[in-house]
UniProtKB/TrEMBL annotation:
Occurrences of domain RNA polymerase sigma factor 54 core-binding (ranges): 69-256
Protein name: RNA polymerase, sigma 54 subunit, RpoN/SigL
RNA polymerase sigma factor 54 DNA-binding domain boundaries: 268-424
Entry similarity comment: Belongs to the sigma-54 factor family.
Entry annotated with the keyword Transcription regulation: yes
Keyword Transcription: yes
Taxonomic lineage of the native organism: Bacteria, Bacillati, Bacillota, Bacilli, Bacillales
GO terms for cellular component: DNA-directed RNA polymerase complex
Database matches in Pfam families: Sigma54_AID, Sigma54_CBD, Sigma54_DBD
Length: 426
C-alpha cells in the first residue's frame, strides 16, 4: 500500500472557550447568572454592576394591598427552639434538663426520635428512669406526636390527646395499623367485632392527624421563584416581556479606566483584554435574552389555548418543533428553558412543562393527568373508579383513547392510590 500526502478542505465547528461559556450561560438560572456576573465583576475591575430600578405596576400594587398577609415578613421557628420555649418556667432538675436537651437534639426533621432510653442514659451517664421522665415530658409538649418512635406511635400520641378519646382508633393504630392502611377491613371487621362504617369513621379521623408534626416548624427562610418571562394580555393581544429587573446591568467603569490609563503598552494591553471580556459578556447577555424571548413568543403562539383557557387545554409539543420554527438547534431550546420560569395568567410555570408528549393528537400528558384527577375527585367513594373505568370515561366524554396501564401510570405519578384503597364504606 502506497502512502500519499494529500490536501483536503473541511469545514468544522471549533468550540472555543468563549463559545463554550456562551452555551453554558444560556442554560444558567437567574441565581447562577447573578453569581457569574459578580464573579466577573471581581475578576475584571472595569466591570461595574448596577441593580436595576424595579418598575412598580400600579394595577398590581392595588391588587397586592388586598392581600395584607402576604406582605408580612416570614417568622420561622425551628422545632427545637419551639420545644425549648415551652420549657421556660417549668421546674426541671439538672439531669432531666440534660436528658431533655439530648432528646430534643436527637429528633429528626419530622419530630421522630431515633434513639432509645438506654442509649440516651448510657451517653449521658445518668439513670434510665430520669431519661424516661424526660421523654414523657417531651411527648407532652406541642406539637402532639413529637418524640414518637414511628408513624403508628405518632398517631397514637395524637389520639390520646383528643378531647374525646376514641378507643377503637387507638386500638387500630397500635395493633392493626398495617392491615388498616391497606384496607383489609373485612378481616378486621370479624376480629374487632365492628361494622365497616366504624372503620370508615376511624379512617376519616386518622386522616385529620399529622403524620409528620415536626415538619410544621423550620428554621429556613422561604425561597421564592422570580419569573424570567412575564406573559400578559392587553389590548386584545398577548405580550411577552423578559424580566430584566432580576439581572443587574453591567457597565464599563470609565472613571477607573482614566485613573489607570498610561503609555505603558502592558497596561494598555491589559485594559484591552478586559474590555473585550466586558463586550463578550454584554453580547452573551443580549443573545441570551433574545433567545429566551423568541422561544417564549413561540410557546405563547403554539400554546394559545393554554393561556386563554387553562392547563386542561395544553397541547402536545416537542422541542424539535419549536427549534425548527425558530431555525435553531433543539439543544439550544433545551438549554434556554432549563430552570426558567414564566409568569402566566394561570400562575407561575416551569417553561419545560410546555413540552410534553401527547397521548393523542389533541391531548397532552398534562391534560390527561388533570382529567384523571378530576374524574377521581368526582367519583362515588363507595364505588370508586377502576383504572379501566377511567380509561372508558376518557374515551366517552373527551374522545381520548388511553390504555388502562397508561391510566395506572399517570395515577401513580399523581400519588393517587388505586380504587381498592380509595373505597369508602359509609
Amino acid at each position: 500500500m502506497e502512502m500519499q500526502l494529500t490536501q483536503r478542505q473541511e469545514l468544522k465547528v471549533a468550540l472555543t472557550k468563549e463559545l463554550v461559556q456562551a452555551i453554558e450561560l444560556l442554560q444558567y438560572s437567574t441565581l447562577e447568572l447573578q453569581s457569574l456576573l459578580h464573579e466577573q465583576a471581581l475578576e475584571n475591575p472595569f466591570i461595574e454592576l448596577r441593580e436595576r430600578k424595579r418598575t412598580v405596576n400600579k394595577r398590581r400594587e392595588r391588587t397586592d394591598q388586598k392581600h395584607y398577609i402576604e406582605n408580612v415578613s416570614a417568622f420561622n421557628r425551628s422545632l427545637a427552639s419551639h420545644l425549648h420555649a415551652q420549657l421556660v418556667g417549668m421546674y426541671i432538675c439538672d439531669k432531666e434538663r440534660r436528658a431533655l436537651d439530648y432528646l430534643i437534639a436527637s429528633l429528626d426533621e419530622y419530630g421522630y426520635l431515633h434513639t432509645t432510653i438506654a442509649e440516651a442514659a448510657c451517653h449521658l451517664q445518668i439513670e434510665e428512669t430520669i431519661v424516661s421522665r424526660a421523654l414523657h415530658m417531651l411527648r407532652s409538649l406541642d406539637p402532639a406526636g413529637v418524640g414518637a418512635e414511628n408513624l403508628p406511635h405518632c398517631l397514637y400520641l395524637q389520639l390520646i390527646r383528643l378531647p374525646q378519646r376514641d378507643e377503637l382508633a387507638e386500638t387500630i393504630v397500635t395493633e392493626y395499623f398495617e392491615p388498616f392502611v391497606h384496607k383489609k377491613w373485612k378481616e378486621m371487621k370479624a376480629k374487632l367485632g365492628v361494622e365497616l362504617a366504624d372503620l370508615q369513621r376511624v379512617w376519616e379521623l386518622i386522616r385529620t392527624l399529622h403524620p409528620r408534626p415536626g415538619s410544621l416548624y423550620n428554621d429556613e427562610q422561604m425561597t421564592y421563584i422570580v419569573p424570567d418571562v412575564i406573559v400578559s394580555y392587553s389590548n386584545g393581544a398577548w405580550s411577552v416581556t423578559i424580566n430584566e429587573d432580576i439581572i443587574p446591568t453591567i457597565v464599563w467603569n470609565e472613571s477607573y479606566e482614566r485613573k489607570v490609563q498610561t503609555d505603558d503598552p502592558r497596561v494598555q494591553k491589559y485594559i484591552e483584554e478586559k474590555r473585550q471580556q466586558f463586550l463578550w459578556i454584554q453580547r452573551c447577555l443580549t443573545q441570551r435574552a433574545t433567545t429566551i424571548e423568541q422561544i417564549a413568543c413561540e410557546l405563547v403562539y403554539r400554546q394559545r389555548d393554554y393561556f386563554e383557557k387553562g392547563s386542561l387545554h395544553m397541547k402536545p409539543l416537542t422541542m424539535r418543533e419549536v427549534a425548527t420554527a425558530l431555525n435553531i438547534h433543539e439543544s439550544t431550546v433545551s438549554r434556554a428553558v432549563k430552570n426558567k420560569y414564566m409568569q402566566t395568567p394561570h400562575g407561575l410555570i416551569d417553561m419545560r412543562r410546555f413540552f410534553t408528549s401527547g397521548v393523542d393528537e389533541h391531548a397532552s400528558q398534562e391534560k390527561v393527568k388533570r382529567l384523571i384527577a378530576e374524574l377521581i375527585k368526582q367519583e362515588n367513594g363507595q364505588k370508586p373508579l377502576s383504572d379501566q373505568n377511567i380509561a372508558d370515561l376518557l374515551q366517552q366524554r373527551y374522545n381520548i383513547c388511553v390504555a388502562r396501564r397508561t391510566v395506572a401510570k399517570y395515577r401513580e405519578q399523581l400519588h393517587i392510590p388505586p380504587a381498592s384503597k380509595r373505597k369508602q364504606y359509609a
